[in-house]
């Protein structure tokens, strides 16, 4: 049986504010001489773990073409917001935010929105988080995209890692590598939902 809350609301009551919210925030994404794609790349690199901070992972995350991502990376590098470092012998590169990049990100409209979301009551925030995560996961699956989730919901994650490993306390069974608590809170290109 439906509760009063269910009867007073329908899918449009979720979809419309989300659409409008994205539009309102996107309008501010041209500040600081950046464009929305450059901002998305900065936000991604600030959240990605060390296995996922490459141009290839960024391409998959944004669902853009290699050429577009290459232009975006070059523009951010030119502006001094990101730096490239050699990743391994195969010459793939690792991207990271510079100090200037972190300062720019601190003024990002979505980062400001995090503070507004923080100000919601804890119960409201938790319910919204669960609902939005559920909707996002369904849409990602429907579109056949990578989940880019965090370790705690990944089938390769082990809460308890190698005994006495100071870089722990966790372990990734896919990369056979130790994960710190901070590592585990980052998004990953190889995330695979635990069944
Ligand atoms: S446990 Fe999963 S999400 Fe975490 S680093 Fe390993 S593959 Fe990535």
Helices and strands in order:
Blueprint: H1 4-8, H2 12-26, H3 36-47, H4 55-62, H5 66-78, E1 82-86, E2 93-97, H6 99-106, H7 109-118, H8 122-143, E3 157-158, E4 170-172, E5 177-179, H9 181-184
Antiparallel strand pairs: 1-2, 3-4, 4-5
Helix pairs in contact: 3-5, 4-5
Question: What does this protein structure show overall?
Answer:
The protein has 195 residues and is mostly helical. Helix content is 50%, strand content 9%. The protein contains nine helices and five strands. The structure holds iron/sulfur cluster. Iron/sulfur cluster binds next to loops.
What would you report as the Rg, rounded to the nearest angstrom? 19 Å
The helix-strand sequence is HHHHHEEHHHEEEH
Q: Please count the helical segments.
A: 9
CATH class of the largest domain: Mainly Alpha
Q: Are there runs of 5+ residues with pLDDT below 50, and where?
A: none
Distance between the terminal alpha carbons, to the nearest Å? 30 Å
Round the mean pLDDT to the nearest integer and report it: 91
Query: Count the strands?
Result: 5
Main-sheet strand order equals 3-4-5
What is the architecture of the largest domain at the second tier of CATH?
Answer: Orthogonal Bundle
Number of domains: 2
Approximate shape: globular
Q: Could you say what the CATH topology of the largest domain is called?
A: Arc Repressor Mutant, subunit A
Main beta-sheet strand count, sense and barrel state: 3 strands, antiparallel
Could you give me the name of the CATH homologous superfamily of the largest domain? Answer: Winged helix-like DNA-binding domain superfamily/Winged helix DNA-binding domain
Global structural class: mainly alpha
Quote the beta fraction.
5-15%
Give the helix level as a range of percent.
40-55%
């Amino acid at each position: 049986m439906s509760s009063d809350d269910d009867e007073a609301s329908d899918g449009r009551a979720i979809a419309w504010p989300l659409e409008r919210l994205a539009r309102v925030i996107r309008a501010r994404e041209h500040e600081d001489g950046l464009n929305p794609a450059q901002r998305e790349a900065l936000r991604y690199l600030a959240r990605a773990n060390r296995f996922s901070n490459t141009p290839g992972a960024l391409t998959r995350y944004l669902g853009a073409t290699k050429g577009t991502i290459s232009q975006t990376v070059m523009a951010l590098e030119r502006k001094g917001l990101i730096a490239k470092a050699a990743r391994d012998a195969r010459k793939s590169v690792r991207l990271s935010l510079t100090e200037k990049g972190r300062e720019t990100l601190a003024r990002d409209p979505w980062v400001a929105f995090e503070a507004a979301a923080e100000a919601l009551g804890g119960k409201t925030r938790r319910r919204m988080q669960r609902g939005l995560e559920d909707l996002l996961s369904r849409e990602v699956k429907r579109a056949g995209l990578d989940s880019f989730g965090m370790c705690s919901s990944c089938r390769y994650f082990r809460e308890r890692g190698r005994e006495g490993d100071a870089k722990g306390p966790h372990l990734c069974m896919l990369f056979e590598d130790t994960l710190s608590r901070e590592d585990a809170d980052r998004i990953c290109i190889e995330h695979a939902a635990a069944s």
